[in-house]
Every structure is written in C-alpha cells, then in structure tokens.
Amino acid sequence: MARDIQLEESIMLLPINPARKAIAALLTQLLVVLQMYGVARPEWLTDDLLVTVGGIITVALVYFIPDRRGGTP
C-alpha cells in the first residue's frame, strides 16, 4: 500500500500536463482498489503484473502520446 501511495506522489511531481497527471492518478487508484478488494482474476494476473501494466500505461500517457500543444513533455 505504501508503494502505491509513493507511486501516486511521484506522478504528481512529474512536469506534465495536469490532465495527464489526473489520468495517471486515476489508473493508480484503480490498481489500488483492485488489490484491496481482491477482484476475482486468473492466477497469472498477479499484483506485481497489475502494477507493471499500470506503470506502462502511465509512461505511455506521459511520454509517448503528444498533447494538444504538439509535443511531448
């Protein structure tokens, strides 16, 4: 749980568009909720895999998808 809070705080410190920060924070919270409630999922879908996938999505949002200003952060 502390790792999730630290990840969310790290996201807020990134020098990126506030809308992207909000999306990344929401994805992080979704992962936390999935972990807390132990949503039924296949055995191969571990907590570490969920966090990894969330991180990959966040990095894609932050660094590889250009914003409306026409560039990446």
Task: Describe the protein's architecture and organization.
The chain contains 3 helices and no strands. With 73 residues, it is mainly α. It has one domain (2-64). Helix 1 (2-13) runs antiparallel to helix 2 (18-37) and helix 2 packs antiparallel against helix 3 (47-64). The protein is elongated, with a radius of gyration of 13 Å. The termini are far apart. The mean pLDDT is 69.
Topology summary:
Layout: H1 2-13, H2 18-37, H3 47-64
Helix pairs in contact: 1-2, 2-3
Tally of strands: 0
Query: Beta-strand level of the residues, as a percent range?
Result: under 5%
Structural classification: mainly alpha
Helix content percent band: 55-70%
Uncertain regions spanning at least 5 consecutive residues = none
Distance between the termini: 29 Å
- Determine Rg (CA atoms, Å): 13 Å
Number of helical runs?
3
What would a concise description of this structure say?
The chain has 73 residues and is mainly alpha-helical.
Key descriptive features of the protein:
73 residues, mainly alpha, 0% strand
